[in-house]
Amino acid sequence: MTQDRWTAVDSYLTDLIVQPEPALGAALMASAGAGLPSIAVSAPQGKFLMLLAKMMGASSILEIGTLGGYSTIWMARALPAGGRLVTLENDPKHAAVAASNFERAGLAGMIELRLAPAIETLPRLLAEGRGPFDFIFIDADKPGIPDYFAWSLKLARRGTVIVVDNVVRDGAVIDPASADINVHGVRRFNDVIAAESRVSATTIQTVGSKGYDGFTLALVIADQ
Ligand code: SAH
Ligand code: DHB
Ligand code: MG
Question: How far, in whole angstroms, is CA 95 from its chain's centroid?
Fold first, then answer.
């Protein structure tokens, strides 16, 4: 039971239950057409993010790592009228594809795309008084996760939900001798979160079209 079966099951579940809207398929097509890497969340994962945001009644969402905006479109669909989503991307080509995908989806008015390294935009958002966000999705470069998480806490409130993608990495996360800087980014993040009393967190391992990976879900439980 490995990759082929996981992909087939994702496909079955996507068609039957997830039912992504046409704008999502169009965003993936445009992203692939422009040569962007196929590393967006899967459809079941995207809908999971959308449902989480909806369950908590999020009206302000922050995403770190836009790519072509596939996960962004899922999450934006959870927003009520007047809700806002800010998404951070440092690759101009990815940002251009995403902007056109938001336009096509009719979401350009509620999504703010900030083109710069996330580590520069995050302090700027704080200085601009843009927090607190209700829901935060961390999905950019993996060595940056510990810093992105620290800034996310500053941009959060008690009750904010923070989701961090790609934290299991084929199980390599348990290998302290790994030569992969992404694994080390995740391991440093895990050490941070283990010692962080302001959040209560869990990590769920996943399999699917994107292989064997996982995500961390952290609930901010202290007033900031
Ligand atoms: N969330 C997207 C996938 C993001 S892939 C989805 O699921 O649809 C990771 C993205 O993070 C890439 O587009 C990459 O260009 C961007 N990225 C990498 N390093 C970054 C940085 N330092 N600041 C901002 N974005 C960065
Ligand atoms: C990569 C990044 C992601 O966010 C992801 O979900 C899968 C792969 C990557 O950089 O390879
Ligand atoms: Mg990811």
Answer: 15
Smallest CA separation from ligand 1 atom 19, residue: 141
Q: Examine the pLDDT at 224 and tell me if it is beyond 90.
A: no
The ligand 1 atom nearest the CA atom of 137: 1
pTM above 0.85, yes or no: yes
Residue 191 DSSP code: H
Q: Are strands 211-220 and 199-208 parallel, antiparallel or unpaired?
A: antiparallel
How far is CA 188 from each of CA 45, 140, 143, 148, rounded to the nearest angstrom?
A: 24, 15, 9, 12
Ligand nearest to the CA of 113: 1
Q: In what order do the strands lie in the sheet with 111-115?
A: 111-115, 84-89, 60-64, 135-138, 161-165, 211-220, 199-208
**Strands (E) located in the chain:** 60-64, 84-89, 111-115, 135-138, 161-165, 199-208, 211-220
Q: What are phi and psi of 185, to 5 degrees?
A: -60, -45
- Residue nearest to ligand 1 atom 13, measured at CA: 67
**83 CA → ligand 3 middle, Å:** 24
Task: Give tens-digit pLDDT for 95-140.
Answer: 999 999 999 999 999 999 999 999 999 999 999 999 899 999 999 9
